[in-house]
Amino acid sequence: MSSPRITLKDLAKELQLSPSTISRAIAGHPAISESTKKKVRKKAEELGFAPNSIAAGFRKKRTHSIGVIVPKIDVHFHSLVISGIEDLAYREGYNITIFQSKDSIDREKEIAKILQNRLVEGIIVCLSNETKSYTHFKKLVKLGVPIIFYDRVPTDFQANKVVIDDFGSAFKATEHLIEQGCKRIGHIAGNQGTPIFKHRFEGYKAALKAHNIPYNPDLVLETQNLSYEEGAISARKLIALPQIPDGVFCSNDYTAISAVQVFQKAGFKVPEQIAVVGFSNYPISQVIQPNLTTVNDRAFQMGEAAAKLLIRQIEDEDNAIDFETITLKTDLVIRESSLRKK
Fold first, then answer.
1. Which of 108, 134, 167, 181 lies deepest, with the highest CB count within 10 Å?
2. pLDDT digits (tens, 9 = 90+) for 253-282
3. Which residues form the HTH lacI-type domain (predicted)?
4. pTM to 2 decimal places
């Protein structure tokens, strides 16, 4: 009976190093010190380690290229995610190619085909608003291409994911308005066909319930793209109600900023008459007067985490990594737009 083949994980356990470090040391990666390379090669020879022939063949065709698909590159959140991805990827010897789906499922499918032909070693994706089926990504997975989803992730497709706690973040933002004395709180919501915006809506409702404030559907306005224009339209509808809200939680900063401007133009004082909280902590949130209270969604860290997880999956020659979901913590950044109690 032949003895079991020594794997990268066996070597990693022996040397108390990560499998990816072992893999790079054997491949002669410049980021690994010469002393570590010698130590790894010596132990590999001692244990009789022989790299998997299929993996070895794959290494000869290494491109060190990662594809990134974002809905819109001009949205600050995605720009920061890309920056985090690029920063980590560069340090690990990978380059990235960026594509934007423009929130179109058809465009997303075309990009998936392009990336398949470009022989990228892995893909990082934020789904478009229109994506309800994942066939184009499942095909890539069957071809052995690792995929990491971030922010907008599939709900019924096993994959590695990096997200934030949208429900908890929205709960905290709404609860902050309640603590400031708001009792009639509106919500400018994102597309409810997109899970992250549905979770933010559910977090808003849960905070109301926890503080015995009745939910009023008239105070909730759904948008399709959370654009500046949609925020302004929603704000006008809120102040046209027989009884206006005294607080508003918005699913992003664009709608929150436009709402603040509409309220002020109509003669309402922010936050004295209407307190406002946004989501994402865009740079403009510190420029607008009053400065905007918002949720810091850790976009840069999300990009770093996605890249780190993908590279670990790419370099795991034994395909032994289980699927996991990384949930990043957020912070509520409290500024003037919500501070009714000084």
1. 108
2. 999 999 999 999 999 999 999 999 999 999
3. 6-60
4. 0.78
What does the angle CA 140 – CA 145 – CA 149 come to, to the nearest 5 degrees?
80
Q: At what angle do helices 135-142 and 105-117 cross, to 10 degrees?
A: 10
DSSP 3-state of 254: helix
**Sequence-separated (6 or more) residues with CB below 8 Å from residue 114:** 99
Q: Directed axis angle between helix 253-265 and helix 228-239, to 10°? A: 40
Look at the block and give the residue holding tokens 């010897």.
93
CATH superfamily of 166-296+332-338: Response regulator (3.40.50.2300)
- Nearest-10 crossing angle of helices 8-15, 34-47: 120
Q: For residue range 12-68, what is the model confidence (pLDDT) as tens digits?
A: 888 888 887 888 888 777 778 888 888 888 888 787 676 654 344 444 457 889 999
How would you label 70-102 residue by residue, b for 16+ Cβ within 10 Å and e otherwise? bbeeebbbbbbbbebbbebbeebebebeebbbe
Residue 168 in 3-state DSSP?
helix
Count of other CB atoms within 10 angstroms of residue 283: 9
Q: Indicate the CATH number of 8-59 among 2.115.10.20, 1.20.1070.10, 1.10.260.40, 3.30.160.20.
A: 1.10.260.40
- The alpha carbon of residue 113 and the mean position of all alpha carbons in its chain are separated, in whole angstroms, by 23
Q: pLDDT per residue over 21-32, tens digit each?
A: 888 888 777 778
